[in-house]
Design goal:
The chain is an alpha+beta fold. 35% of the residues lie in helices and 24% in strands.
Length: 226
């Protein structure tokens, strides 16, 4: 289900948080389209945190710390990377309003980025929204092989360690299926979301953000939930 945003000036970071709590999120038709519309899919993509799969080759890359992984150090650059055209993705739904609104959520501590680096070059990453014990993955990008995958592994370790219950991917792609993503009905998703929003919130920064988390440690945390 989608709904056109006819009162765009009224969308604020606070409105976004209320929308996420209701299972709704905004999108744009393209990066050049200034309008937004609300989306509430009939089928929702989720990655079960106790069923997250890491292929053996990727696990070796993670364990080697080939990429330097950081958290919340390059949010604007990460969302810009997600919005940039790439091979097989000439246009994206991330327009200026999306970047500004989620930048506002970042300032409020409700939006986070995980970045993968080679030297001083940002070569991959992802960003998403944290609310209660739910994390809503928004987008990811890479310019080096496996960079966004490594960022996702570190994200999942952080969510597990921080006591999160739900990783919402919005939709399911073949890429996400390889990590264990599956579709659930709107009714089932609502039940999962309600549970994740009840009680104490998750702590996204329970793993330190000011020092690197070794890949071996991230894999260890994920294995503890299997």
């Amino acid at each position: 289900m989608t709904s056109r945003d006819s009162a765009s000036s009224e969308i604020t970071p606070a409105v976004l948080l209320r929308a996420y709590a209701c299972g709704i999120f905004p999108m744009a038709e393209s990066a050049d389209d200034p309008t937004l519309f609300w989306v509430e899919p009939e089928m929702r993509g989720v990655i079960p945190l106790d069923g997250f799969r890491v292929a053996s080759r990727l696990a070796r890359t993670v364990r080697s710390d080939y990429f330097r992984v950081t958290v919340n150090t390059a949010f604007k650059a990460t969302i810009a990377g997600c919005a940039a055209p790439a091979a097989g993705r000439e246009d994206t739904w991330i327009n200026k309003r999306i970047r500004d609104l989620y930048g506002g959520l970042y300032e409020l501590g409700h939006c986070h980025s995980v970045e993968a680096w080679q030297g001083d070059d940002l070569v991959g990453g992802l960003y998403g929204v944290s609310l209660g014990r739910a994390f809503f993955g928004e987008s990811m990008f890479h310019t080096a092989r496996d960079a966004s995958k490594v960022a996702l592994v570190h994200l999942v370790a952080r969510l597990i360690h921080g006591g999160f219950e739900l990783l919402d991917t919005q939709y399911v792609t073949e890429h996400l299926k390889s990590f264990g993503a599956a579709e659930v009905s709107r009714r089932r998703y609502t039940a999962l979301l309600d549970k994740a929003l009840a009680g104490a919130p998750g702590d996204f920064l329970k793993l330190p953000a000011d020092q690197p988390v070794p890949g071996a440690r991230a894999l260890e945390i994920i294995a503890s939930r299997q």
